[in-house]
Amino acid sequence: MLPRKIAPVLQRRLAAFPAVALVGPRQCGKTTLARSLGGRHYDLEQAPERLRLDLEWESCLAGSDLVVLDEAQAWPDVFPRLRGAIDAQRRRNGRFLLLGSVSPSLMRQVSESLAGRLSLVELAPLAHSELETGAQRGRRWLMGGYADGGVLGGDHYPVWQLDYLALLTQRDLPTWGLPAHHRTTDRLLRMLAALHSREWNATQVGKSLALSYHTVNGYLDYLEGAFLVRRLEAFHGNLRKRLVKRPKVYWRDSGLLHALLEVGDQQALLRQPWVGASWEGFVIDQALTAMQHAGRRCRAYHLRTSDQREIDLLLEVESELWALEIKLTARPGPQDLARLNSNADLVGADRRFLVCQRSERMVDGAQTVCDLGGLVECIEAIA
Question: What pTM value is reported for the model?
Answer without folding.
Answer: 0.94
